[in-house]
Amino acid sequence: VTPRSCSGSVTGVPGRAKVFVRALSSPDPDEIPCGCLVFSGIDDPGNRLIRYANHYFYEQFGFAAGGLVGSPLSGLLTKASTVIFDAYVVPTVLHEGRCSEVLLELQTPTGSKCPVVVNARRHSADRTLIVLSLFDTTQRDTLYQELVETRRRLEEKATILQHLSTTDELTGLLNRRELHKRAAIMLAEARRYETSVAVLVVDIDHFKELNDTLGHAGGDKILAELGKRFREQGRLTDIVARHGGEEFVFVVPKMDEFCVWRFAQRLHKIASEVRVPGKVLTVSIGISLSHPRDDLLYEVLFMRADKALYAAKAAGRNRSLIFD
């Protein structure tokens, strides 16, 4: 395609129609969608005067049209931004010819502060002048704060979901899944450092009768209260979990037989302090103990403690037995 006349440049692509591009005239600074300032006094901080401001600057930041020309640049910036401008922006322009993306604050006619991103360079025709472009970042900062707040809420929800996925809703203790996961890690560390681990399975005596007498709500109240007291009793290194129903599990590191026996007695005492109408709450406890250099899985230790628990139940309840 070859037009008869065209006041523009011509570019060709082999095998395709030629494309004609009309040259555009340089745009007026008032048409550029950002603030534009020109100021003098590049070598004299006390004599830096605004020589030009485009229409966008006046309109965007609320200044009277033409009212800035001849006024000092320092009156346009906050005190902190004036320090940054004099100490960083101007020296960088003098040394490198330009300075990019510096965050400053303007003092608007209403007295408010407006954050702007400033780019600066020397005037191409008059090297005693500096040209600034200023972009209002108020909307960007607002969006950023909204994103920060959204992220905070998402992190809170993620924390809640993480908590729900690892804990028992009624007692606040670890659930069975998290119990198995953490116990495996504890036993791996015990094997590495050749230390012992104790597993205690705690079961409330005659809990079905309590449920029948007090109702499920009453039974849940007892479980919640006992779980709370067990959680407060455990050390930071201990694993305390609700295994299911009326059964709780402790996995305790660095315990010998004497220490774990005393620990079990404390659990009996804690259970007896939970208020139950018309009776004293008791528990039966089965205990298994790994020894240094043992290579036992948690499932094996739990099975042994569970057998000791059933033996304690058969022996009359309200007692602790260690698997032998």
Protein model, in words:
- This protein is of the alpha+beta class.
- Helix content is 41%, strand content 24%.
- It has helices spanning 55-61, 79-96, 138-166, 176-193, 207-233, 257-272, 298-314; strands at residues 9-11, 19-21, 35-39, 50-53, 98-107, 113-122, 130-136, 197-204, 239-244, 247-253, 275-276, 279-280, 283-289, 320-322.
- The protein has a five-stranded antiparallel β-sheet. It has a five-stranded mixed β-sheet with strand order 9-10-8-13-14, with helices on both faces. Strands 1-2 form a two-stranded antiparallel ribbon.
- Strand 5 (98-107) and strand 6 (113-122) form a beta hairpin.
Q: Taking Cα atoms only, what radius of gyration do you get, to the nearest Å?
A: 38 Å
What is the spatial order of strands in the main beta sheet?
A: 4-3-7-6-5
Tally the helices: 7
Q: Strand-residue fraction?
A: 15-25%
Distance, first to last CA: 99 Å
For this structure, the quaternary state is single chain
Order of helices and strands: EEEEHHEEEHHEHEEHEEEHE
Fraction in helix: 40-55%
Q: What is the overall pLDDT average?
A: 87
What structural class is derived from the secondary structure elements? alpha+beta
Sum up the overall morphology in one term. elongated
Low-confidence sequence ranges? 1-11
Largest sheet: 5 strands, antiparallel
How many strand segments?
A: 14
